[in-house]
Amino acid sequence: MNKVLFSLLVCVMLLPVAYARAADTKCETLTKDEAAALVKLLNPNLRVLDVESSPVQGIWEVTITSGGQKGLFYIDCSKRYIILGDLIDTKARSNLTRERMAEINKVDVASIPLDDAIVIGDKSAPHMLIVFDDPDCPYCAQLHQEIKQVVEKRKDIVFFIKMFPLAMHKGAYDKAKAIVCGKSLKLLDDAFEKKDIPAAKCATSAVDDNIKLGGKLGIQGTPAIIFPDGRVLSGSMPADALIQEVDKK
């Protein structure tokens, strides 16, 4: 998420806006034009893409875009309040906002080159997941172990790991380049175990290409998991949760 959207999320939880109505106003349709007028009070650079009913009665879900990235916020029935944050279904124990964010930010899996990827599992398995990893990322190391459990349990799932070193991790770029050059799962294992990694033994632009591609796809952190249907989820996940996401229809 870019700085504009992030700043909105951390700024306030409820923001009154100019178009106030009485609290007991009956719920009326919220048009894109009305939502856009409210959004402009927050930031004129935000553009409204869609308005839908949210899972919560009396709350509208608004999809916005800024800098090529999509985000969500909510507007109440009175059209007075903008709500920033996540909708949590406590009964289902699910983050509804996170799930919708994954849906609206789907990527074209076929557009992602895999020649430089480290393969974990059967390369010909029908369910392919792509993971953008940083060799110095502790959450990537955690996910790495879960991935190994997944391919043990499910031979129909394969992971393609693309190196995506973050600028904040000194030395990660050189490690990523060495791993790509060797196409070595062992080197990736060693990196996550904090072992020394030898210098790259080839000249390659793959890591730089991955960084550029990640930017286009809206990936700003690691690990980023791309599922077969194009949904992108960030962070480590337990093996069973990964399998559950793959099996979603």
CATH homologous superfamily caption of the largest domain: Glutaredoxin
How would you write the strand order of the largest sheet? 1-5-4-3-2
Rg, Å, rounded: 21 Å
Shape: elongated
Number of DSSP strand runs = 12
Average pLDDT reading? 88
Low-confidence stretches: 1-25
CATH architecture descriptor name of the largest domain: 3-Layer(aba) Sandwich
Strand content: 15-25%
Looking at this protein, list some descriptive labels.
elongated; single chain; Glutaredoxin; 249 residues; 8 helices; five-stranded mixed sheet; disordered N terminus; alpha+beta
Description:
The chain is of the alpha+beta class. The protein folds into 2 domains: 102 residues, no CATH class; 138 residues, Glutaredoxin. The protein contains 8 helices and 12 strands. The strands form 3 sheets. Strands 1-5-4-3-2 form a 5-stranded antiparallel beta sheet, sandwiched between helices. Helix 4 packs across helix 8 and helix 5 packs antiparallel against helix 6. The N terminus is likely disordered.
Summarize the entry for a quick read.
With 249 residues, the protein is α+β, with helices and mostly antiparallel strands.
